[in-house]
Amino acid sequence: MPLLPAPPLVLPPTPAPASRAGHRLRASAAALLLGTLGLTGLSLPALAQDAAAPAAAAPAAPAPVRSAMDGVLFYQLLVSELELRDGNAPLAYQVMMEAARRSRDEALFRRAVDIALGARAGEQAAAALKQWRQTLPQSRQAAEIETQMLVALGRQTEARRALEAFIELTPEPARPAAISSLPRLVLGGEQPQATARMLEETLAPWRQRAATAASALNATAAGWLTAGDRSRSLEFVTKAVQRDPADPGAALLAVELMKDQPQAEALVRAHLASAAPAAGVRAAYVRRLSTDQRYGEALSESRRLTRETPDDAGAWLLQGALELESGEPRAARDALLRHLQLTEAAAPGNAASQADAAEDSDEDLPDPIAQAARRNRVQERAQAHLMLAQASEQLRDYAGAQAWLERLADQDSVTVLTRRASLLMRQGRIAEARALLQRLPQGSAEEQRTRVLTEAQLLRDARQWPAAHQLLAEASQRFPEDTELLYEQAMLAEKLGRHEEMEQLLRRVMVLKPDQQHAFNALGYSLAERNLRLAEARELIGRALEMAPGDPYITDSLGWVEFRLGRREEAERLLREAYQRRPDTEIGAHLGEVLWALGHQEEARRIWRESLARDADNEVLQETLRRLKVRP
């Protein structure tokens, strides 16, 4: 709401505060005075000195500092803050503005703006900024805040003038950094498109100057990215990379644009091929590839990242996660141990275990940045311990896996309980594992279904298919429209050979959730696997791939149905694409069979050997080798 006009303030002839304010000063005089003085950056003179002579050994007292604050200014600041404390923002604003005009002090103009903003009086804040700019035309701070204010008010033309002033007032050496900060400064309001256009127009001359071209191109691109116009953003990123492929800022924007602008990947690769690619760009590229389920490429880039930056603990953690995801537990273990070695060397006090967690606190680190860094290291080390437990489990080192889990501080977390239950399942201790899972939270409906899904997955991994199916069937009675429960029940029905039940459940999922690509893919793949209704299978899988373009598992299904239809070359192309994205054991089994049928037997054997190394017990792989009577 706008500030109400306040009555004119009549200043007394002396700086002594009026009696009206006297009683209010007693409660927190020190706090009020310190706060008031902090606004101006001015210091008070010594108000009194000890009448007694100092001891001979005592150092001489420093000479009093003469303050630039006169009595009238002191009184104005005091009254303004007291009025604000009592809820009279209009008078507080008016008095503070008068003090700012008299003193020409930036801090007081800023305080007047803050008072207006606190009262939700945008026009008064804009008026204070205008007066500030007129009084101190060389103030960068005023131009910066005025830009933000005018953008928030939707006054784009005035905002552009203020933004131009801010850039011009910035010293030349600091100008590129200032330009780079502009998207954060001006974007985020209710008119992002108009603001991005204003930013593009304002930066036009700076994109032509050598010293500021890179930052201006990137800022323009970031502005359009924030505004949601990703194709327009790509235009400026392309210009930035063409101008300088080594520019990490442009490359990072290109990584972000890869999500829905495929052309952006070539820009990222151009940077990575430059003389000095930034490690941060490669790490961001790895994460993007992983998000896009291109795990094979992500792992290759991750390994290169650790070769280029062998002392980067985060790079080793990322590689460990990808090795584990790709079915390489030994390589994952090596990478994760390297991460722990580096983080321990960097911070010996990292809390990795329950004992460490009790001792390791932020009390000895007063710096918030250092505290955040320590917390991040502790979290990363906990992730490493959890993944090491998983890698050990896959290597059948169950004692080692248990030892890694015992290092984690929160032994009752869902993740730790689940991993411990998985260890018991793998050792055939089914009853103990299921009893342990009863400790998972079950208070809410969501917690109940999470426990059921977790238990069913572990039973499935342990090949306890009837028990898992029964558990899910009972849960589906309680949650009849839960598509995740229905889908998992369908997958177990297939394991038990109940294909009619599986199809009914999957079609129920398709009705309840038409965008559930996994249901379409699962039914299509099942038909192809049984060599039934292949045209329908191809249509179902095609619909799934439309919902999730590039998904390696769905691409594998499409390749498999093409093979069943006799289109071997197309099947090979699709399966190679899927295997490159994700070198999964089952995809490898399919690709190997297609290559074998095409006469590429040595390559087929190589892929089968790779797949056996990842998961020698995989049913699809073992069935393929038995049927073809192949010994890789």
TrEMBL record:
Pfam families: TPR_16
Domain of life: Bacteria
Xref: PANTHER family: BLL7664 PROTEIN (PTHR12558:SF33), CELL DIVISION CYCLE 16,23,27 (PTHR12558)
Name of this protein: Tetratricopeptide (TPR) repeat protein
Organism: Sphaerotilus sulfidivorans
